[in-house]
Design goal:
Layout lengths: L1 H12 L4 H8 L3 H13 L3 E4 L5 E3 L3 H8 L1
Antiparallel strand pairs: 1-2
Helix pairs in contact: 2-3
Length: 68
C-alpha cells in the first residue's frame, strides 16, 4: 500500500513533503498530495509551511501503536 510505505518513509527519514514522497515512492504528484493530505488528517504530519515542508507530529514507534 503506497500510504503505508509513505508513512514509513516519512517516519524513517524525518522528511515530509509532497515532492519527497513523490520521489521516494516514484508516484505521481496528485497521488503523493492525497497521501500527504491523509497523513495530515490522521495527525502524522502538520500543515505545509511556505516551502511545502511539514512538521512530523508522531515518532516512528507511535504510529504503529496507535493502530492497535
Amino acid at each position: 500500500d503506497p500510504y503505508e510505505q509513505a508513512v514509513a518513509v516519512v517516519l524513517r527519514d524525518k522528511k515530509a513533503s509532497t515532492s519527497y514522497i513523490q520521489r521516494r515512492l516514484q508516484i505521481g504528484y496528485n497521488r503523493a498530495a492525497s497521501i500527504m493530505e491523509r497523513m495530515e488528517n490522521e495527525g502524522i504530519v502538520g500543515p505545509a509551511n511556505h516551502a511545502g515542508k511539514r512538521e512530523i507530529l508522531v515518532e516512528a514507534g507511535r504510529a504503529r501503536e496507535d493502530e492497535d
